[in-house]
Amino acid sequence: MSTVVFFPEGAFGPTNNCVGIGQVLQERGHRVVFVIEESFAGSLEAQEFEERLMRLGPPPEVEEEPGQFWKDFIRDTAPVFRKPTIEQLTEFIEPTWRALSDGARYVDERLREIFDDVQPDVIVEDNVVCFPAIHHSGRPWARIVSCNPLEVKDPEIPPVFSGYPAGDRTGWDEFRAAYLSAIADLHGEFAAFVEERGAAPLRDAEFIQESEWLSMTLYPREVDYARGVPLAPTWHRLDTCVRRSDATAELPEWIASGEGGLVYLSLGSLGSADVDLMKRLVDVLSRAPHRFVVSKGPQASEFELAENMWGEEFVPQPALLPLADVVITHGGNNTTTECFHFGRPMIALPLFWDQYDNAQRVAETGYGIRLATYEFEDGELLGAIDRLLTDEALRGRMAAIASRVQSTPGTVKAADLIERLARDRTPIVG
After folding, report:
1. CB-based contacts of 386: which residues, under 8 Å, 6+ apart?
2. How many CA atoms lie within 13 A of 411 on its CB side?
């Protein structure tokens, strides 16, 4: 039996991906420990995993909800989401990297205590910044990239966070230059900290290293990018990574079997905190001849749903997606890949980070429609739903992808790779 530590970013998407892999490892008899923020305390124990708690900043004066720091951060930064992605670089992207880097500094000693106590055979990190304590531990470690694969940069693919098309290089160089300028000072500071604490140097403008042991991307083969430089042989692709859930989707009868299509609306736990946007979506969709299931999110009490809708603060997404005909999403990587896993076409309304890249990729590969989140016309959204509901060719293509990825689950592939790393303690190639 091996001991595997999962260290996901403090958001539901990366945590849920790791849970899916952890479930497989646990069933095989391995000890699985999650290192999580204090606001998530108890949530992993409820799924029969061990927990070790840490903080990425000083404790607040009041009790926190899970991931509360990022909910507050997104709420306060929301006005920036109405700007072009190149203008978001200094007002959202750099502050986000700074918050993440500050967290890595704050938690380093606590992580060292945890790893010394748990004595893991493998550490699995699903984060976007380096935590030197992982390197200091001397243990084999695996990196999961549960963001759009543009985060693993290449000159022949669009710049990450841009939302620019792969088939048109207009603006690529300008965006890359603006990005480097925006993060230059912060990156220098963080790179110095990383080396001071005993981790490998950060190359170029990266905030995290490529693991020399094992790295995994999370994106279906059919929509992945054509790279100019192949990734190292220690990189492996998980097409999708969907956790097993015992939750069932118990819909009201008038939603489950009413007229029209069944549309699932979710802007994620962070995107749904934009109450004005949620209210506008409810208003527009109330005029559609379809039924809607809405993930209302943390501000659920701040808005009401229309008569053709049902929803709650949290809904069991893996149980709902197989029932939906179309999904309206913010384009988060978790929801995007889950839609491919279940063969559901998407309407993407991106807000921040890699959501623009996912929205663009879904649209340019023909698996959905990208709309301007704050500027779409009512008719655009309603028309997009109708087009996707009647596109039988698209439904067939997505069903084929779903059949393929479900036959080789990413959770099982990842568990196999991690198991090999724990056993052999050598880089996992091929």
Report:
1. none
2. 24
- Could you tell me the strand order of the sheet in which 291-295 lies? 309-312, 291-295, 262-266, 326-329, 346-348, 368-370
b/e per residue 123-140 (b: at least 16 CB within 10 A) = bbbbbbbbbbbbbbbebb
Q: Decide if 22 contacts 29 (C-beta within 8 A).
A: no
Is residue 68 predicted with pLDDT exceeding 70?
Answer: no
Residues 6+ apart with CB under 8 A from 261: 290, 291, 325, 326, 385, 389
Instruction: Provide the greatest CA pair distance for the chain.
Output: 62
Per the model's pLDDT, the better-predicted residue between 41 and 188 turns out to be 188
Q: Which two tokens stand for residue 401?
A: 């992808």
The CA distance from 402 to 409, in Å, is: 10
Q: Which residue bears the tokens 């710049």? A: 159
Closest CA to 292 of 316, 258, 343: 258
Q: What is the pLDDT of residues 78-95, one digit of tens each?
A: 788 889 999 999 999 999
**229 has pLDDT over 80:** yes
Q: Is 13 helix (H, G, I), strand (E, B) or coil?
A: helix
- Cα torsion 392, 372, 10, 30 to 10°: value is 20
